[in-house]
Specification:
This protein is of the alpha+beta class. 40% of the residues lie in helices and 18% in strands. It contains eleven helices and eleven strands. The strands form four sheets. A three-stranded antiparallel beta sheet has the order 1-3-2. A three-stranded mixed beta sheet has the order 4-5-6. Helix 5 packs antiparallel against helix 7 (152-162) and helix 7 (152-162) crosses helix 10.
Length: 253
């Protein structure tokens, strides 16, 4: 009776397609022996060493991130283009969702069970410290659970951080065009705390080029843009105000 009560209690609170960590379940009173019994009874299925899913569920990446954030207390989160798609800020990128962009801090790695699983999308994980981990995050409601993802300002900066070629920069410009309702105070705070010079210069250049109203509220004299020039493309146009060389197509657009 007690075991039936425990499995009922577990299942009633377990959102669909969400991964649970065995370490967390053990903290909640579900012993290894009990979990093995659940597996033999086909109530739960191992997702690899350290993680389980309800039998019949199809684990989602978001459901795995729930486990990392809420149970393992990790900072790993959807960022960059993935976060913008989840926020509805880059609808035209929807059809490109063959990859899922994740960011975490320098000390974190994807657990083996997550890295080895065959997800519907390829996972691209980046560990970085160019922004404080708790800055610019928002809660995203999923079906039956929620996770933290990068808000629009942070996600835009993450896109710029990952940009490596002309195509990336042109796509970042298209994304920036849609970010007309960012909050100036939050943008200011994030630019001040961002430690990546390329990201800050590009962000300001694109925002000014798009002519967003919030750009005019920024206190540029309080943002450290570093020294020297940054050449972001082999053959481009030099922008003296921000000391960057950008693709000609972007400068002329």
């Amino acid at each position: 009776m007690q075991n039936n009560s425990k499995i009922n209690q577990l299942f009633s609170a377990w959102p669909k397609n969400v991964v649970y960590l065995t370490s967390w379940l053990k903290e909640k009173g579900y012993s290894t022996q009990l979990l093995n019994r659940y597996k033999k009874s086909n109530w739960i299925t191992s997702l690899g060493n350290g993680a389980v899913i309800k039998n019949g569920d199809q684990p989602s990446v978001e459901g795995a991130i729930f486990a990392l954030q809420k149970q393992a207390k990790m900072d790993i989160h959807p960022g960059g283009k993935t976060a913008l798609v989840l926020l509805g800020k880059a609808q035209y990128l929807e059809f490109k969702r063959q990859s899922f962009v994740l960011f975490g801090n320098r000390t974190e790695k994807l657990p083996k069970w997550m890295a080895m699983h065959q997800w519907m999308e390829d996972l691209n994980y980046f560990s970085s410290t160019f922004l404080p981990m708790n800055l610019g995050m928002v809660e995203k409601e999923m079906e039956g659970f929620s996770i933290l993802i990068s808000g629009a300002t942070r996600a835009m900066m993450e896109c710029l951080y990952l940009s490596t070629n002309d195509e990336d920069l042109l796509e970042c410009y298209e994304i920036m065009e849609g970010l007309n309702n960012l909050r100036p105070k939050q943008v200011q705070d994030m630019l001040v705390q961002c430690t990546n010079i390329k990201v800050k210069r590009l962000f300001l250049y694109l925002a000014k080029k798009v002519n967003h109203a919030w750009y005019n509220s920024l206190e540029l004299n309080k943002i450290d843009l570093g020294s020297g020039k940054r050449k972001l493309t082999a053959h481009g146009v030099y922008i003296p105000e921000f000391r960057i060389t950008v693709p000609k197509k972007l400068a002329d657009g």
